[in-house]
Amino acid sequence: MAQGRVAIVTGGTRGIGRAISTMLQDAGYKVAAIYHGNEDAARSLSEETGISCYKFDVSDFSECETAVAAIVEDLGPIEILVNNAGITRDSTLHKMTPEDWRSVIETDLGSCFNMCRVVINSMRERGFGRIVNIGSINGQAGQYGQVNYAAAKSGIHGFTKALAQEGAGKGITVNAIAPGYVDTDMVRSVPEPVLQKIIARIPVGRLGKAEDIARGVLFMVADEADFLTGSTLSINGGQHMY
Ligand code: NDP
Q1: pLDDT for the residue 1
Q2: What is the CATH number of the domain that holds 146?
Q3: What is the per-residue pLDDT across 154-166, written as a single tens digit (0 to 9) for each?
Q4: Does residue 200 lie in a domain region?
Q5: Catalytic-role residue among 29, 149, 181, 242
Q6: At 202, phi and psi to the nearest 5?
Q7: pLDDT digit string (tens) for 108-138?
Q8: For the chain, what is the domain count?
Q9: Which residue from 23, 25, 179, 226 has the highest number of Cβ atoms inside 10 Å of its Cβ?
Q10: Is residue 154 part of a domain?
Q11: Residue 222 sits in which domain range?
């Protein structure tokens, strides 16, 4: 019964999020794709697919409250939430600024609290909800130069398991996906020699595609997936078997 269920995808206009948004729409969900600053990506998604795009900062609780109220008004109550928005601000700890720490924690992890907090009561009242949080292989394994990102993504996995316990009696499932290296703008910003070394460590011999991750989300949000909760699905080409 995907037909008509309303799904929010944060960071839903580019990269992995764009693939999630379009795959959910193709499956019959009504999608609201959230972005923060890249107007071109949002315009192209909306022109090509008709998906509604909303601009706000998922690291800001009051912006989330206001924007989600507007989405509910436009599309209806939120039954699916995909917390996918994320940023990196890489450097080793001895050079990392408090701002680089805070912005990654607040955008990548704080956003999960903000968005879940804003939709959870309506999901509880309706007795149905599907939440998928996008973590990372680097939250599972750690990564040089990413204490902020690894801490935020690792936190997502604990957050997922705790909220899954709270939602279980209310028809709300909460799961996570830990992608490996996926060919998006985020990974294209990695210097080429470093990227080649990363690819050499991926057993299937290639970067992931955004659709590889989106397929996992589609599986997790299905009505039939009501026995799947509190789990983390690693989709990483065999790079890290957790
Ligand atoms: P991209 O950098 O390609 O896209 C990020 C998206 O998040 C954009 O839509 C961006 O909006 C949005 N966004 C960023 N900050 C905010 C904010 N404060 N408020 C609202 N929206 C925001 O990322 P990817 O597609 O590569 O990654 C998606 C998720 O997957 C992230 O959580 C990332 O950490 C995770 N991941 C990615 C991996 C990879 O290899 N690519 C590997 C493992 C995990 P805008 O376009 O307006 O900037």
Answers
A1: 58
A2: 3.40.50.720
A3: 999 999 999 999 9
A4: no
A5: 149
A6: -95, 115
A7: 999 999 999 999 999 999 999 999 999 999 9
A8: 1
A9: 179
A10: yes
A11: 6-182+210-232
